[in-house]
Amino acid sequence: MKVTGAQALMKCIREQNVEVVFGFPGGAVIDIYDELLKNEDITHVLVRHEQAAVHAADAYARVKGEVGVALVTSGPGATNTVTGIASAYCDSIPIVVFTGQVPTPLIGNDAFQEVDIVGITRPCTKHNYLVKNPEDLIPTIREAFHVARTGRPGPVLVDLPKDVVAATMNFDEPKPIKMRTYRPTYEPHPGQIEKACKAILKAKKPVIYAGGGVIAANAHEELTELARNLGMPVTMTLMGLGGFPGTDPLSMGMLGMHGTYYSNMAVANSDLLIAVGARFDDRVTGRIDAFAPHAKIIHIDIDPTSISKNVDVDIPIVADCRHALYFINSWFKRKKDFDRDAVVASHQAWHESIKEWKREHPLGYIEETDVIKPQFVVQKLHELTKGDAIITTEVGQNQMWAAQFYHFNHPRAFMTSGGLGVMGYGFPAAIGAQMAARDRTVIDIAGDGSIQMNIQELATARQYKCPVKIAILNNGYLGMVRQWQELFYDKKYAHTGLETAPDFVKLAEAYGAVGLRATKPSEVEPVIKEALATDNIVIMDFVIAREEGVYPMVPAGKATTEMLLV
Amino acid sequence: MKHTISVLLQNKPGVLSRVTGLFSGRGFNIESLSVAQTLETGISCLTLVTSGDDAIVEQITKQLHKLIDVIKVTDMSETEYVEREMVLIRVKAEANTRAEVLRVIDIFRGKVVDVSSKSYAVEVTGTADKIRAVIDILRPIGIQEIIKTGLIAMSRAKKQ
Known about the structure:
Largest sheet of chain B: 5 strands, antiparallel
Number of strands of chain B: 9
Order of helices and strands of chain B: EHEEHEEHEEHEE
Radius of gyration of chain A: 24 Å
Distance between the termini of chain A: 67 Å
Structural class of chain A: alpha/beta
Low-confidence stretches of chain A: none
Number of strands of chain A: 20
Distance between the termini of chain B: 30 Å
Oligomer: heterodimer
Strand content of chain B: 35-45%
Structural class of chain B: alpha+beta
Mean pLDDT of chain A: 97
CATH class of the largest domain in chain B: Alpha Beta
CATH superfamily of the largest domain in chain B: ACT domain
């Protein structure tokens, strides 16, 4: 069958189970948009800035467990995607970004809206392609999706010159993709599984340290089985939240810079650390030589480069997390003399220690009656949504309070720009999440600074009837930087005050959304209830304690046991 | 410690910048680099010399392998291998030194590839040490120009 490049693109996108494309048109992709108009089975969401298209595709991918797609034009359309791509790269999120490009004869001539986007995004994509020949178009698109979703997932960019998109070519049915140079390892080495299981049996003070790989691999059930079967406490990274039920007694919440006191103490005192799909990021480890100094470390990761990158590992397991955990669970099932009760009992003293740390320094804050505490808002959001909402965040204090106080019980319900830390991620992500799950409640927990970085997407949310709720924790500051200035820069608040701000209630109304404001603790619950009952976008402007900090906090470069507490 | 790493890769556009970008982006060193086609069409072999402790070199080989266009990465330093560089040297060769230059080149099994009334251009191949030695010896005579290739390496055949 003969098709045009644009038709081939539509067919290939549909092959991938993708129903929604986030994008913004322009001269170089006008043929694709002309074809898109004829394709009723692909919904196009017109964002108001290309960065938002990529964040929305990122969250769409996270909620659905599929590949997200963004489509933009050449030049500035392409460069505007870079932040979104870099964020998806850090967080290992499978997306494919299609960028328009000037026609092949013009490439390299500094044509209008020409930019070497393949060169620009080389270090922040898993892989990228410039399609120069029409006959390469279809195989390249299919390979791009394959690379994005397999192995350690990540963003892939495909640059499409205008003449390639306009050309005609043969369309063949898809065949299984085999690449000579790219074969990720899914199955763990049985010898390593055996070693890991024996180490688990010996451990008296084990801790499971779960990262985003648990979510990416859909390994939450296997992880929960392992933790509960052997009675092992679990701590999670920011990206791992929801990988294990946050309200389970074995959950210690998040670890690291703003992790719980008991998570960090448990890791520091553990004799076995089981890292699953986590990468020993500096925000997790703090001073590296003081991280889990007494522990033997098992590390399960599909990406060999993650293993022994920052911390030496005793038992590396290169595998898909789900497969590896399945084999570990099976090992215990098969082991005839495995005395589960004895193993669980042998951890008893360890659980007592953790309980003691929890008693000493629980996760908390100082409540006040006349001023709204941000943690209280997040707790109320959790309570009133019964913990079932999809939460997105911006970056900074809002992100940490969301991570600490919304106890995620399910995977794929927490979207945050974890690795790159992009302010302006949360709102477009909320739109992407809502497009993937039309019947779910989606809430962007935001700050008054970061919400302004992609506030233009209010129009997008209106146009596509995404009734997302935005909870602005409004302290009139770029709060996280202000907190560092308070603690480490003699309270010199250099350019972190946001005295000039829009009236968020009126701003919401200007876009046809609903604006609500709470200035007292007693107003928090009514505002949230009204927002949740409103079938429209709602901005909830919570005027919070201006100089509230995020605690616990491990100062950068310190050991994780050197925490500043509430 | 120095390591010689051999990388087999698909000769796709931009593949070299993927490799060099990885080194610059992650702060690894490249001391020399040499790349050319293999017998198989579309496949190139890249030999690079880098330095770092074991953990760094382990990261380098893993990161190289992670590149989608890379087929195989071998740290030659872990095996028995032969290595060669080639150098072209233009050395001053006037009446009183012409014979001496030829003698030196003969000792190093090099050859003269260009002649003028005042200089010879000579070609020498060998290990990095040998190339260094010939340069040291010719320097007092008067080296005018040096062009060196990067190092290339090949594993030794397995002995029965």
